[in-house]
Structures are given as structure tokens and as C-alpha cells.
Amino acid sequence: MSTDYLVLTHTPVTLDNVAEALAAVESSLLIRSDSMETMVIAVDPKDDRPSLWLEPSQHILEPEELARLLGGGVNLEPFAFWTELHGPTTDPQPVASLAQSLAVMLNGRALLMGGSES
To answer: Cα(first)–Cα(last) distance of the chain, in Å?
Structure first.
């Protein structure tokens, strides 16, 4: 099980954005990318355990489907991109903090999947 957020933004979230936001909220985590750079993973350096995962930003092509994933009733305008963030349910604070930090930094919105805004 995971705690899942969507960050809605005007531009794609970059690795630099993630590094800056993560340093502001959880500076003890290290950032890693998989070999194909399709996912960013933040790990705890003490035990090399992943603490959160970020998928690459996607262009909003089907706003109705994205609104359904968010629980309906979510206005996606004027945003053009969405980025998924995932963290363990046993420790949801890092992913919630990172989602909020990215949203503030990029003038976007952080939404807990299922519909609530943080």
C-alpha cells in the first residue's frame, strides 16, 4: 500500500526541482534515478531503503480520466502537466511534504489521490 499524490503544474517537474524541494523538506534523503531515467527514488542513506518514488511528469491529455483518478470534482485548469508521487503508508509525511513543496515552488497544486488537496 502507498500514499499517492498528484502534483499539477504548468511545466514538467524536473530532477532539479525534485532536488531543491527535497532538500527543503527532507534533507537526509538521497535522490536516485533508474537506469532509463523513468523514475526518481529518494532513499534513506542509513539503510538504502526507498522512502518515496516519483514518476515522470505527464502532459494532461485526458482531463476526464485524471479527474476520475482524483475522485471527481477537481478543476485541472490551467495546469498542463501532472506528476505522481508515492510513499509508504507507514510514513506518509515525506511524500506529502515533497508534493506540497513542489506545488508551491512550481505554482501548482498538490492533491492526495482520492480527491483532497494538501
So the answer is: 20
Looking at residue 103, its amino acid is A
The average pLDDT across 25-53 equals 80
Closest to 77 measured CA to CA, from 66, 91, 89, 90: 66
Q: What is the dihedral of CA 104, 107, 113, 116, to 10 degrees?
A: 80
Q: Where are the alpha helices (DSSP H) in the chain?
A: 15-25, 63-69, 93-105
pTM, whole model, 2 decimals?
0.84
Residues 87-92: contacts with CB under 8 Å, at least 24 apart? 87/2, 87/3, 87/51, 87/52, 87/53, 88/1, 88/2, 88/3, 88/51, 89/1, 89/2, 89/3, 91/51, 92/3
